[in-house]
Specification:
single chain, about 325 residues, alpha+beta, three-stranded antiparallel beta sheet
């Protein structure tokens, strides 16, 4: 296709002083676009700020247009070209972003060599802010620092438990050295137009348990996971498990939407029940199977209702005896 004719070569990545002297094949759309960049960069060689933005957009265009296996040397060359002024900050940001992405791929078993890359990325960004606090990339640099330092918590857990069975739970955490877990009994009916914060604050969720946990944080901004086996919930029903960093932050966030939005938190619903409901699609729609949680045997006379959006019932209660297996 004429639009995509022209594979990248070294001249595509030249610094502006050399790139502005290159002439590309006008029969290719890619080359036509690159010719626009050569003209713009040649015209603005003396305007450092504008030139850096054009150069930056040229590299972004190329990286989006074709597969470039090693982008770091290209960003580094651009950074070096503007080494003595704030125009370099946008290229420093891209170099730090590569370090951030590399650090996020750390695995304590299979990819340990990048363990310190998040710390390196943060140092690069903070040093740049200190040297050029008013560059045109200050906001992007600050946002990436915040992303690296942001506390985070998440769950990996089963959605159903049998009464009396211990509850396995995998907690994933980052930039956190303590966690609080709240166990709530879920309400049978949910008031309309109220989010989770208000539902907890107003007592619609009934607290049943509170646990304070210490977790490992080595100040390297790496994500970690910790596995627990919690005491059983004896009474069948619907429960909510909510995790956050501290009890004090949780109580403050309950009083404010803005604090609630930034609170590091995770929650999931747990059904404690002696029965299990599974489903499968068929030509007639959906088939539901109600079985004993432990034995897998079908439960006679079980009734199934389907709900959408909390308590809005979309299918009527229905019972039909079916043998499984």
């Amino acid at each position: 296709d004429w639009k995509y004719v022209g594979e990248p070569n070294e001249s595509w990545y030249y610094t502006p002083d050399k790139f502005s002297k290159v002439s590309f094949n006008k029969e290719s759309l890619r080359h036509k676009i690159l010719n626009v960049y050569t003209n713009l960069e040649g015209f603005h060689l003396e305007d450092t700020q504008l030139l850096s933005s054009i150069y930056y957009q040229r590299l972004k265009y190329i990286f989006n247009e074709v597969t470039v296996e090693e982008t770091e040397p290209k960003w580094q060359s651009a950074f070096n070209y503007f080494i003595d002024n704030s125009s370099r900050s946008k290229f420093l940001y891209e170099l730090a972003l590569l370090k951030y992405q590399s650090g996020k791929s750390y695995d304590f078993k299979s990819n340990t060599s990048v363990k310190g890359d998040l710390i390196v990325a943060k140092k690069m960004l903070k040093d740049e802010l200190n040297r050029f606090p008013d560059s045109d990339f200050t906001e992007q640099i600050s946002d990436l620092i915040q992303l690296i330092e942001q506390p985070r918590v998440d769950f990996n857990a089963q959605s159903t438990a049998y009464p009396g069975d211990k509850i396995p739970l995998k907690l994933e955490h980052q930039n956190i050295d303590s966690l609080v877990l709240y166990f709530f009994k879920s309400p049978k009916e949910y008031p309309k137009n109220k989010g989770l914060r208000k539902l907890i604050k107003e007592g619609h969720y009934t607290p049943t348990r509170e646990l304070h946990l210490a977790v490992k944080d080595l100040n390297d901004h790496q994500e970690r996971s910790t596995e627990y086996l919690f005491d059983a919930i004896e009474k069948a029903g619907d429960y909510l498990i909510f995790a956050t960093n501290t009890e004090d932050d949780f109580n403050k966030a309950l009083k404010s939407d803005s604090l609630w939005r930034v609170l590091p938190k995770a929650h999931y619903s747990l059904v404690v029940s002696e029965i299990m409901v599974t489903n499968e699609k068929n030509d007639d729609g959906m088939q539901f199977y109600v079985t004993d949680y432990k034995t897998g045997e079908p439960i006679e006379g079980a009734k199934v209702s389907v709900y959408f959006n909390r308590n809005f019932q979309i299918l009527p209660e229905r019972s039909e005896e079916r043998r499984v297996g």
